[in-house]
Design goal:
This protein has 145 residues and is α+β, with helices and mostly antiparallel strands. The chain has a domain of 93 residues. The protein contains one helix and nine strands. The strands form two sheets. The chain has a five-stranded antiparallel sheet with strand order 3-4-7-6-5, with no helix packed on it. Strand 3 and strand 4 form a beta hairpin. The longest helix is centred in the first third of the chain and has 23 residues. It is elongated. 17% of the residues are buried.
Length: 145
């Protein structure tokens, strides 16, 4: 036989089956149900997001309160203090006094989370430390010139 053309009603290719193909539908339905169940389980087991609760101004520093310990990173860059938190919260800003001079602070959202910046007219130095307290997480920022 040289090809699949018809020769006296006989050929090498089987005829099309007139019945509908249900197997792809069954597999597609199972895939959709599996994705939906996985999303529900993931939603139930996901940790609660870390949220900023409040910012307290102290003499010479700030205290930042969270509902749980966030991932965070802090740097001193050109006399400016910046702390990046992997958390959610509302935008805030304010001032505090350090040796009789103003220091501006600001909380804003970035792609990495919340960014706390402290800026003054002169270069700042400082340190920060976090610890759990009263079922929340407390980060204290101490500033000095």
């Amino acid at each position: 036989m040289h090809g699949s053309e018809l020769k006296d009603g006989q050929h090498s290719t089987p005829e099309e089956d007139p019945r509908p193909k249900l197997w792809p539908r069954v597999l597609g339905s199972l895939a959709i149900v599996g994705v939906m169940v996985g999303m529900m389980i993931g939603r139930l087991t996901a940790p609660t997001p870390v949220e900023l609760q409040q910012v307290d101004v102290l003499a010479g520093g700030l205290v930042v309160w969270f509902n749980d310990e966030p991932k965070w990173h802090g740097e001193l860059v050109d006399g400016t203090l910046g702390l990046l938190f992997d958390a959610k919260g509302k935008l805030q800003n304010g001032q505090l006094m350090l040796n009789g001079k103003n220091v501006n602070w600001r909380l804003r959202r970035t792609d990495g989370g919340l960014l706390l910046t402290l800026v003054a007219a002169r270069p700042l130095q400082g340190d920060w430390a976090g610890a759990p307290q009263d079922g929340r997480w407390r980060l204290q920022v101490n500033l000095r010139e």
